[in-house]
């Protein structure tokens, strides 16, 4: 059937659009006016639109019984911008579906582990949402809004953790650091991380769209294999075939560097890879989640191990000249 993907120009959006085409769906990809269309591949109808504009959303959802709402912002200067785009944008997308009679089959929201908040032990879906920063707060509010429509639309929420894979820019900084022969170790105790390869994540989104057990629920989509920052960097070093020098980084130094990076970003308009949001994420006690609900109810399990995901990412980065 015809599926709409908002935010289709982004990292996950591109992979999801291609996965939908490979599964036999017709795909309409909504991208920002003037924004990158990335590598959406053939068989995709691309439409320009702003996911915070009701008229643009109405045109986009028309005739699409499947809607994947991925559009959002990961970085913003003020809390209100996160809420305007991530939370209220979700409400507008749901209202557009109701008005157009779309999403009769499924509305899948791209949530985030950030909505649940940091955890060393592993968050479960039934745990209260405890976001630790503005982005997570906006994703938690988006999730509450989406599930409040569950009586009128078949809504499901995907909560991926850190997403890795070919084409990813969010984790590119760590790959570049290792490529320069360094491996950063943060001071303090280990900080475990849940993660998922982007191709597995796209499969998880399809499961939420197809399985009758999904509506009305949120699901963590993650690999059962956990890592931490050092483990991720070590996997990069092995993929690149280098032996990096370990550098101990105090928490205070990371915070100071992130503050300087944010000030430079504001002064120059150039977004630097380091920022205070990333620093807070790295210094949290952990970002982990349990995977049993998706496994037991949807039959979904991530298949790609960390070593393979990192190797494929390195190959794509090298081909693009990014490392």
Automatic annotation (TrEMBL):
Pfam families in alphabetical order: Epimerase
Residue ranges annotated for the NAD-dependent epimerase/dehydratase domain, each copy included: 3-214
InterPro entries reported in the protein's UniProt record: Epimerase_deHydtase, NAD(P)-bd_dom_sf, NAD(P)-dependent_oxidoreduct
Protein's name according to its UniProt entry: Epimerase
Species this protein is from: Anaeromyxobacter paludicola
